[in-house]
Fold:
Amino acid sequence: MATALAAALVLAADQLTKLWVRSAFLEEEVAVVVRGFLNLTYVRNRGGAFGIFPHQQALFIVLSFATIAVLVWFHRSIGAHHRLCKIALGMILGGAVGNLADRLLVDRERCVIDWIDVHWGAYHWPAFNVADSAISVGVVLLLYYLMLNAETKPARGAPAPPPGG
Structure:
């Protein structure tokens, strides 16, 4: 239940914010929120993360479906009993579905809508969206969960630790 709820919340937040951006901004228009740090803009990303492989929309559609399938399989195979794992998987799933929805249902050129534009000094981070943020946070949470719950096994050929120690 936590996985589905997290995915639904991410998907709703992602699509509602993108709907607002498409209705409030012209493409490439910029609104300064915090000068030198945060802008809002309307960017149609024709590629993947950071705009890599532009105009390879079919590739990203296939990768999105594959990612969703792997997440569902992973959720079922591990049982996802821990709430942190469920929420992490839901965040990644909701983000993947949100960006896939852009490519399949929203944008006629199969682009993803990005709108959060961050600067830090001379560095400019590529624009991103709620789905991208949820995927990033979800991956970090999932890795944290997996590291906390990893079984420690002795290296091959190393003696096993004594019982109780």
About this structure: Strands lie at 30-34, 38-45, 112-120, 123-124. The chain has a mean pLDDT of 88. The longest strand covers residues 112-120. The two ends are 38 Å apart (CA to CA).
